[in-house]
Amino acid sequence: MHFAGAFPSTRMRRNRRDAWTRALVAENALSVADLIWPIFLTEGAGQRVPVPSMPGVVRVSPDLAAEHVAEAVALGIPAVALFPYTPIERRDEEGTGALDPENLMCRAARALKAAHPGLGLIGDVALDTYTVHGHDGVLRDGYVHNEDTVAILCRQAVLMAQAGVDVVAPSDMMDGRIGAIRAALDAEGLIHTRIMSYAAKYASGFYAPFRDAVGSTAALRGDKKTYQMDPANSDEALREVALDLAEGADMVMVKPGLPYLDILHRVRREFGAPTFAYQVSGEYSMVMAAVERGWLDHDRAMMESLICFKRAGANGVLSYFALEAARRLKAG
Ligand code: PBG
């Protein structure tokens, strides 16, 4: 680190004086290639249903999925992350909907791959959108059973990969699932399917709007503290990431985003692996609520939050702002 001389020979404001020097000395930049756009899916045809707790976000039926992402593709967004909405009456104890090759995820993946072969598809591997209790796995005596859940997740991951999902993204936080899913994919010859692990995923209050979006709010019994991480912990996140990388994760994620930039920074520094942040639903909705009240400027809050992820070390960000940010980047 170079330490400059003192004022007045050193004036930090010189480089901030004009837009062109500010641009020259900028240490980080956000590009459209950094953005992953999460997409919510719903049954039916011709459906575009607003999510009330996430202003500007809709659920689309599979027939509209390709059209829904067309602008994102044209703008250069590399990948979308798919999440199915499942009403309570279509859920069951074991989350069997996850293993239906005709489920929303698989149908949408096939439609999107056919329409946009160059678009990366990320599929959420977890049972929370299929279970009647809203947990990410199956319950045995009221506890989410690790090994029974992992066995189902392996089959879920293989099915979505066969439907065209390029990146399976286990968001369940079971132990040992990355290695098991890697082996299950390889056994089916799916050696190119990538795994983006939700490696350091916290038991967070900031997921509430997402649970509305996928239909889990009414379903969820209790909380997820027996498998998701305690927000008080940081060293533990490094152990989680180390294990997932050792088991074969191609990319790791820290989630939520802005409140956990310290974790993101440590993970990127320590491992140097492709590291992603998830700016989750509650973070998005907080900004949007303030924007609606005229308390925050939409574009400034959006672009500032996204560059903060880059500064902290993210290779990319999953964000509900992705399309708007891509538009903004293009406009310059
Ligand atoms: C569940 C899952 C969650 C999110 C992504 N996958 C919610 C949860 O763990 O309860 C949250 C995403 C968001 O809040 O935007 N497998």
Give an overview of the whole structure.
The chain is of the alpha/beta class and 332 residues long. Strands 1-4-5-8-9-10-11-12 form an eight-stranded parallel barrel, surrounded by nine helices. The radius of gyration is 20 Å and the shape is globular. The model has no long low-confidence stretch (mean pLDDT 97). The structure holds ligand PBG.
Ordered list of secondary-structure elements with their pairings:
Layout (H helix, E strand, L loop, with lengths): L18 H7 L9 E7 L6 E3 L7 E3 L1 H14 L3 E6 L19 H12 L4 E6 L13 E2 L2 E2 L1 H17 L4 E4 L6 H11 L6 E8 L6 H7 L20 H12 L4 E5 L5 H11 L3 E5 L1 H12 L5 H15 L3 E4 L2 H10 L1
Parallel strand pairs: 1-3, 1-4, 1-12, 4-5, 5-8, 8-9, 9-10, 10-11, 11-12
Antiparallel strand pairs: 2-3, 6-7
Helix pairs in contact: 2-3, 4-5, 7-8
The structure holds ligand PBG.
Helices, by number, come to 11
Structural class: alpha/beta
Q: What's the number of extended β-strand segments?
A: 12
Give me the CATH architecture, please: Alpha-Beta Barrel
- What level of helicity do the residues show? 25-40%
Q: What is the CATH domain class?
A: Alpha Beta
Mean pLDDT figure: 97
